[in-house]
Inverse folding.
């Protein structure tokens, strides 16, 4: 018995379902298995290849804005701002440019938050999209592996079956030698 190597035959024989009842992803995997096609770029490489300047900027802002270095330096800047505008400038005889209650500082912080939050959300959306692509890729790898294992299992079963027939044939005719 020869194994059908068409996508339709593999669907019936290995997955136990008609080809037209498979989802698009499973059909694509069967076509690639039959053609011997290998994968191209992985999810990260695909995302990097299609990333625009804005996408790269959003990823960079999210990477910097979500780090302890940013938090530490930001706290330091806020502390320096408050010290300069409360004590240092007054002792030097200058009028603080943003005295307590630091209205200009509040404005700058609000603007930073208003701009940084959507940029970080853009980066998170891109990461979620990459995760979905990676999950589809992993599913395809798993499905391909399963199909290949089933194919190998069937081939081994056929070989063992033929060996069994040979052994039975040799035992049936004891005077015959090969």
């Amino acid at each position: 018995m020869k194994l059908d190597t068409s996508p339709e035959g593999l669907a019936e024989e290995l997955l136990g379902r008609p080809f037209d009842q498979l989802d698009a992803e499973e059909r694509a995997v069967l076509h690639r298995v039959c053609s011997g096609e290998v994968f191209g770029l992985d999810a990260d490489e695909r995302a990097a290849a299609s990333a625009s300047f804005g996408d790269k900027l959003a990823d960079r802002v999210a990477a910097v804005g979500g780090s302890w270095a940013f938090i530490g330096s930001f706290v330091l800047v806020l502390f320096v701002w408050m010290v300069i505008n409360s004590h240092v400038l007054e002792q030097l005889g200058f009028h603080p440019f943003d005295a307590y209650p630091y209205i200009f500082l509040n404005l700058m912080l609000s603007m930073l938050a208003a701009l940084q939050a959507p940029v970080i959300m853009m980066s998170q959306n891109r990461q979620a999209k990459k995760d979905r692509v990676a999950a589809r890729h992993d599913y395809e790898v798993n499905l391909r592996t399963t199909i290949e294992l089933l194919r190998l299992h069937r081939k081994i079963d056929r070989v063992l079956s033929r060996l069994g027939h040979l052994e039975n044939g040799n035992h049936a005719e004891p005077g015959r030698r090969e």
In short: Residues 103-172 form the longest helix (70 residues). Residues 69 and 75 are 10 Å apart (CA to CA).
